[in-house]
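Re: weekly structure request thread

Next one in the queue (162 aa):
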Amino acid sequence: MNELLEKTFDEEGLLLTQEHVRRLLACMGFAAVTVSCRYRDERLCIDIIAGDEGKLLIGVRGVHLTALQHIIHCVLRQQLGQRVYTRIDVNGYQTRRERDLLEMAETAAKQVQTTGRTIVLKAMSPADRRMIHTGLSTRTDVSTASTGEEPNRKVVIKPVFV
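Done, posted below.
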């Protein structure tokens, strides 16, 4: 556990981070947002409630949200001098996306187990692929691997024969 980050993101540090994110969003034209931060499991989680404007912050398939997360990650790394794992969620989009990806992965894994055939999922981002790999890592009846070149890398789910 990183004790420096634990101290940095105590209650006061979280409130300061929250205010900086709120100001950044206000400079981007999103003044009517609510920002809350928490530090758990060595990850800074920033939740943004933005109402209808949230669609603009999220973008098509989360592309704006990914960019926002990258910007905030870079600022934090520069300010703190070390890597900070961040997760930013706007209007619950990331939470829903994670749930949908894990449901899709479980459905595909069950299909692989039932048919004995390998399934190749659609191309997805590194973060989405990581979620699939992690979500299926406890299963002993299937294995996962990534194949292809960016931006067309895909997750392959294969049966494990005992």
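The chain has a mean pLDDT of 91. The first strand starts at residue 34 and ends at 40.
Next request, please.
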